[in-house]
Amino acid sequence: DLEAAFTAAADDDDVLAVVVTGAGDKAFVAGADISELNTLGPVEAKEFALRGQAIFNRIAGMRVPVVAAVNGYALGGGCELAM
């Protein structure tokens, strides 16, 4: 979970940098499941979007450099994460 990982890194004074990479060999981030998002109501969709934005805000506010080691496609929110 990105949120937990970045919270832990932010709280650890020994962390000097963070490198984010994908787990597979084809995609850095494949993006959200659009068919699953289509099932969300307006309130749930807003909460989903706000959670994603909170993670990006956490990353932008890190005291250490954050590097994206993009190892494949960066789709959807993965494109924003890579930037």
Topology:
Blueprint: H1 2-11, E1 18-21, E2 27-29, H2 34-37, H3 42-60, E3 66-69, E4 73-74, H4 77-82
Parallel strand pairs: 1-3, 2-4
Could you describe the 3D structure shown?
With 83 residues, the chain is of the alpha/beta class. It has a single domain (2-82), classed as 2-enoyl-CoA Hydratase, Chain A, domain 1, CATH 3.90.226.10. It has four helices and four strands; from the N terminus they run H-E-E-H-H-E-E-H. The protein has helices at residues 2-11, 34-37, 42-60, 77-82; strands spanning 18-21, 27-29, 66-69, 73-74. Strands 1-3 form a two-stranded parallel ribbon. It has a two-stranded parallel sheet with strand order 2-4. Helix 1 runs parallel beside helix 3. It is flat, with a radius of gyration of 14 Å. The two termini are 19 Å apart.
